[in-house]
Design goal:
elongated
């Protein structure tokens, strides 16, 4: 969702500059900084931008430069003198006066002393502004596409790392099974020597225990989620929310693997998977 675009066009002795800056946001949030006489066009500008930009905290900066600076402002002499007289009278009450250059500069900054012209936007200027906005949006979109390609490659690398760690778990499966068998045998020997038992009940409990420690389904589902994630990022557009949902499912399977592992080596791989997944989630904040 981060992006940047800028464009400039000239018409009617005016250079119009449109600059777009975007940060991450769950929705489209636009703020405008532009000359006052463009405010009447803000709704049309918002509608035009919304056709291209779907999400993000977007700042729209519009500036106008006149080739003839003298045509830009009108000076209100009577208003200036009125401000000056009142300021001078006020300062005299504290033993000072307004007879210096700084006082004049302060008065010039007061409302309506200098006033922008013209108050309305001509058809030609509006067409130029619209064309400039389209050019800035194209530049903005190009920026995001380039960033998205790099971001996609980085995310896919983290998914590949999770799949590799999943493959590594298979190496420790025989060790894990043997360790569980030894622990189970030791527990059974101690149990049988001290307490009688119901054979049918014991078999049911044993099957239930074996199902609880089996991680085959979790490994299969995690691999399926990884493949679905890769397919989505490669073939679908504006899939940020969907990728977020898939990442949540990946996290659920990884957590279950860690809970069932009963093996230090496998749990180490699970911790590494969680680290890779957190990096994926951080990057997903940048995706539409």
């Amino acid at each position: 969702m981060t992006g940047y675009g800028k464009a400039e066009q000239t018409a009617e002795k005016k250079k119009i500059t449109v600059e777009l800056r975007s940060l991450n946001s769950k929705a489209l949030d636009m703020t405008f900084k532009m000359p006052a006489h463009y405010r009447e066009k803000e709704h049309a500008l918002r509608s035009e931008i919304a056709r291209t930009v779907q999400r993000g905290k977007l700042e729209v900066l519009i500036a106008v430069e006149e080739d003839d600076p003298g045509a830009l402002t009108a000076f209100h002499g009577e208003l200036f003198l009125a401000y000056y007289t009142r300021l001078d009278a006020l300062l005299k009450t504290v033993g000072s006066s307004a007879r210096d250059e700084q006082a004049a500069q302060a008065i010039l900054r007061l409302p309506a002393v200098l006033e922008g012209l013209p108050p309305a936007v001509s058809d030609g200027e509006w067409q130029t502004l619209s064309a400039c906005l389209q050019q800035a949006l194209a530049d903005f979109d190009h920026f995001r596409q380039e960033e998205g390609q790099a971001l996609g490659a980085d995310i896919l690398a983290h998914v590949a790392a999770i799949e590799q760690l999943l493959d590594d778990i298979a190496v420790y499966e025989p060790q894990r099974i043997e360790s569980l068998r030894q622990r189970l045998n030791a527990g059974l020997e101690a149990f049988f020597h001290t307490v009688g038992y119901d054979k049918n009940r014991f078999e049911q409990e044993l099957l239930y225990y074996l199902e609880k420690i089996d991680i085959t389904e979790e490994k299969i589902r995690l691999r399926q989620h990884c493949r679905h994630f890769c397919q989505t990022i490669e073939h679908e557009t504006a899939a940020g929310r969907k990728l977020g949902f898939i990442a949540q499912e990946m996290g659920r399977e990884i957590n279950t693997l860690g809970a069932k592992a009963n093996c230090a080596d496998i749990q180490q791989r699970v911790v590494q998977m969680k680290d890779e997944l957190e990096k994926i989630k951080e990057q997903l904040l940048n995706i539409l």
